[in-house]
Amino acid sequence: MSKIALVDDDRNILTSVSMTLEAEGFEVETYNDGQAALDAFNKRLPDMAVLDIKMPRMDGMDLLQRLRQKSKMPVIFLTSKDDEIDEVLGLRMGADDYVKKPFSQRLLVERIRALLRRQEAVATDEVGTAPETKVMERGQLRMDPLRHAVSWKGQDVSLTVTEFLLLQALAQRPGFVKSRDQLMDVAYDDQVYVDDRTIDSHIKRLRKKMRSADSDFAAIETLYGIGYRYNEE
To answer: What was the pLDDT predicted at 93?
Structure first.
């Protein structure tokens, strides 16, 4: 049973969403501010966190930043209708997805399940010896899917599940263009719709992390209006 942490200062959301998730077989812990959640996470991490952005004491952005210092667990942001800047910033900071309020609880459940499936796929060897599970080396890049490990020029780079899958999809075929739709198919289930900006934000975050290991990193090329391409260095 996966444990989901739901963090929101709206008690109606905490009650209704937790009831839905429990009915779907999840174990749910609820917190009404970021500091209370962080205190609990310091003792034991959940399998996934669903965070509101605007909260008292500690907001979702600050909580995500603290989490990413010690964990790659999937994180979904709950955002208000007019929080477009916060959505992009959250993705760049390392969130895996976002859902706009008001939202369909069925949609939220599907996104949670999709992220947990991807987390399991890169953390276990249950998928056997498929090509996407083998260690991949492309020039200075080394990716080990079964250990969720990435290094560039010998330096480890910490990626979220979504970032890992996007980099893997691009690097598998250097020189070939992947459209945003193709990358969406890699990173999200068919039932989950995301827009182009979500993929772009993940790519920007991915580039930033790779450049933290090498300021000259330029292997991911943007082809405006088309998509992205990995160029082996």
So the answer is: 76
